[in-house]
Specification:
The chain is mainly alpha-helical. The chain contains 11 helices and 2 strands, in the order ααααααααββααα. It has helices at residues 3-31, 35-40, 49-57, 64-87, 93-103, 113-120, 124-152, 160-175, 196-221, 225-244, 252-274, and strands at residues 180-185, 191-193. It has a two-stranded antiparallel sheet with strand order 1-2. Strand 1 and strand 2 form a beta hairpin. The radius of gyration is 18 Å and the shape is globular.
Amino acid sequence: MTLAQRNCYFRGGIILSSLCLLCLVALAGKLLPLYPELSHGALHRSQGLFQNLAARFFDPVPQVPFASAAAAVVYALATSILVFVFFEKTQSPEILFFGLFALSFVFEILRLLLPLQGAYNFPSILLILGTRILFFGRLFGVLSLFASSIHAAGLEMQKQGKVILTIVIAILVISSRIPVNGLAWDSSLTMLCAYSSMFRLVEYTLMGISIVSFLIAAYTKGTGEYLFISLGAMLVSLGRGMLINADTWISPLPGLIMLIAGTWFIAERLHQVYLWL
């Protein structure tokens, strides 16, 4: 993939995340008053490594799902701009897939479908469809980070466009078959679906492999930059889980800080690796 083609992905990410952010701002006044009732109607608390701990000590706050979705979109926009500025003229195969990982956060805007249904009373089938697209986005993000790491570890992927297409097709097949309950949701305002524990295990496994793959790259390529990139991958993985599963104020800010720190490690160190190539 040429630099011009790759940069089109980054520009598209900037445009898409900007539009999503504008939608959030436009809908905030109408939707936020609906959150307390929807929060009380949640079947159970949202799940996640940090979230399960936070749920023991803190009660859910109705407005946090909106704030976390907004933070996710802002993160996607800021990171898309960052990687475009850093790598506009620098070839780095890993950064394309990391940019797609960051862009996947825009799918969190689909958690607004539940309050939107309360405001406009559209059919529940749209909630089911939106939830499947949301899970598509989450799996796409995890697999994009995984693809970035295995490329760094030494797997050559000359046809990056075909790799992206393969990932998209595979996740479309999976997400289209997820059974979704269109009448029940958790405290993060995500509709409940079957096999959620299995999907979390798959995500944790792929993110763990991604972290290890960057460590392998540090060893095989003999550069300490990938040690920091591995640390960045760990931080963005932890921060992602804290942010998207948040239902109390203790979670979004630390999650966002981890995402920012991890993103800086990855982008800045990859830029150092490829700066003189």
